[in-house]
Amino acid sequence: KLIDKGEDGELRIGFLGSAMQNVIPDLLLKMNKMFPGISTSLEEMSNSLQVDAIEKDKLDIGFVRVERVPLGIEMKPVFKDTFSVVLPENHPLDVSNFKGVDQLTEEDFILFSRDYSPAYYHKIMSICEDKGFTPHITHKSVHAHTIFKLVELGLGVSIVPTSLRHGFDFKVKLIELREIRQYANLSLIWKATNRSRVLQKVLDLI
Question: What Å distances lie between residue 91 and 72, 165, 178, 197, 204, CA to CA?
Fold first, then answer.
């Protein structure tokens, strides 16, 4: 009876790392309070792997940064984030003298891999292209932890969703890019034909 009501069971969640900084913790706290009988399975994975897992019924929901999804998958925007430049702690630029990303024309860039999130990668490229340059990319990674560490070591600079500032403790500084047109939009996806009672409860909650 509890399962039929959606008050018992498991919710399988896929997510990008940045979703763990705000969206997922809030969701888990609300679920724990309202539906204590529902357990969760969490797995950090790329956009494409989440979409594939949703299609194959291996995940119930995913938190992704994509512009479009295949037929049969529903998508709902859940968080609109700004972008921030990540600089080594001793970099001469800071909030007081930073005017725009065109000041980073000669810098090496460390970015999330295109394979990890093509839409996100192209947004970063467009941020630079809007200022008249193409970034010189020296390192790519699928993990924010690695990107922050490489910036801390002075191997380059990066541009990441601003919410990631809360998840790591490195000797870097973040400068929010407020005057640009691009945003890091996080969306919730799920399979339209998934009839899980737990899923319906959580979709209503979200």
Answer: 47, 17, 20, 52, 46
